[in-house]
Fold:
Amino acid sequence: MIVWSGRGFLSLLILFIAIFLFIPILPETYITQSFVIPLYIAAVFSFIFGLKWNKTLRIFIDKETGKEINFKNNHGLFWINMEYWGIIFPLFALVILMQSLDKQGAELYLNIFLILIGIGCLLYFGITLFKIKNSTISNSEFQKTDVAPQLSFVKEEMIINKFNNEDPNQYLPK
Structure:
């Protein structure tokens, strides 16, 4: 059973599409790489779009009390946010590559090159996440000052008011 929230399923979808594209392209001798390269592709996708989609904050204003209600987006897969899958996927790839280091010739050098790419991805993604999570201005405060969520609230309020004026019994069977 696959559990996701928001657009988190796209991480697995990208992974499976990339695997099914790389298996027929690469020769059978490079079967390990046909799983590692899609893991890296899914990692980059998950990290970039996870950061982008999970940092947005929607602000609604309660009509009765006038207080702001904040809704933060949550896009994740198996209860883990998408940006963290950008670190988990390269870890899986590194485990697969470490198991196939006994190869000889060009495949050994390709594995070493892919290991270096994986370590670079892990370092970059880890440092970036560390900087974002420990920044002096939190993501929610940054998004509160943004005008876009408030504009979307006005549109949603207009839609709600439109439906509040209608008779709800008109949709019932007669």
